Amino acid sequence: MTIPTYWKELAGNVGRRLHYGKVMVTVLGASDTGKTTLSFYLAKELLSVCGRVSIVSADMGQGAFGPPATVSMALLESVPKSIDEISTHSMYFVGSTSPVGHFLQTLTGVKKLVDRASGEGAEAIIIDTTGLVSGGAAWELKFHKIVLTDTRCIVALERERELEEILLPYKDRAEYQLYRLPVSEDAKVRSAAQRREHRRLRYRSYFSGATSKSFPLHSVCLISPYNEAVRDTEGRLYNRLLVGLNDGGNYTVSLGVIEGIDPARGEIHMLTPLKTPGDVRLIRLGSVKIEEDWNDVRIRSV
């Protein structure tokens, strides 16, 4: 794609801020405005002036890396050739492909991964957000995300000033650097079917090497937003449910798809790419089921 002049100017301005210390950048915009492409470009440019850059993909439905239903973090020390080559350093299971009904999980995941990136020495951290920008709930989510991460550099991609309400708290305030940019002509608009197919392919790729594993229920803690897992004695309600397999710090080490619960043996069975389950301390039940063809079905909001 042709890099717009205003993207180059943005990268130069943010790069100069690195002379004064760490930089936190939050990229805002509606769906299909090029947030991920801009985040990747900005990361590449900043790597020319610092040693380590992190991208936190907070779009749990259409993220460029990391599986759906998670907030994922990449830690870059060299420039990947493409977005597809970005590998996931850490992730946090949200349990849904939309932040709606999952604001606490989304905000907690972003905060934990930003803190981990900072602790790993990232000098610049770029948060690539979801396309939820309309209504009071969207305002609250963006506002508290900026507060929690102490973001002072905000990049807004707009077509028709649809971010006006969200940006209001940061206008004409010297402590914030607010960059309002037009949407690139190269930004591609995707249909709902294309978005669904994107998720399906990412699930399929993530679970391509998965095998069936059993976890003793006495050694893990099931975290359910509705606290019903052990009440379903046959486990049928949870067949094909997407879950996060979390360590003691509640970072997600892998995802799983429940194949069944066996109360008699005290085990939960699931399909997962995880090789060694020894680090798993918590199993977080999500709000998405994965069908045999790898399409997802949202079962409820909590």
Name the features.
single chain, 302 residues, alpha/beta, Rossmann fold, Elongation Factor Tu (Ef-tu), domain 3, 2 domains, seven-stranded mixed β-sheet, 6 helices
Description:
It is a single chain. This protein is about 25% helix and about 30% strand. Residues about 225-230 have low confidence and may be disordered. It has a seven-stranded mixed beta sheet, with helices on both faces. Strands 8, 9, 10, 11, 12, 13 and 14 form a seven-stranded mixed beta sheet that branches. It folds into two domains: about 5-190, P-loop containing nucleotide triphosphate hydrolases (Rossmann fold, 3-Layer(aba) Sandwich), CATH 3.40.50; about 195-300, Beta Barrel (Elongation Factor Tu (Ef-tu), domain 3). The protein has six helices and 14 strands. The termini are far apart. The chain has about 300 residues and is α/β, with parallel strands linked by helices.
Q: Could you give a quick summary of the protein structure above?
A:
It is built from six helices and 14 strands.
Q: Please mark out the parts with pLDDT under 50 across 5 or more consecutive residues, or reply none.
A: 227-231
Task: Name the beta content range.
Answer: 25-35%
Helix content: 10-25%
Distance between the termini: 40 Å
Tell me, what is the CATH class of the largest domain? Alpha Beta
Q: Can you tell me the CATH architecture of the largest domain?
A: 3-Layer(aba) Sandwich
Q: How many beta-strand elements?
A: 14
- Physical arrangement of strands within the biggest beta sheet: 4-3-2-5-1-6-7
Structural class: alpha/beta
The name CATH uses for the topology of the largest domain is Rossmann fold
CATH superfamily of the largest domain: P-loop containing nucleotide triphosphate hydrolases
- Mean of residue pLDDT values: 90
Biggest sheet, open or closed, and with what strands and sense? 7 strands, mixed
Principal-axes shape call: globular
- How many helix segments? 6
SSE string, helix = H, strand = E? HEHEEEHEHEHEHEEEEEEE
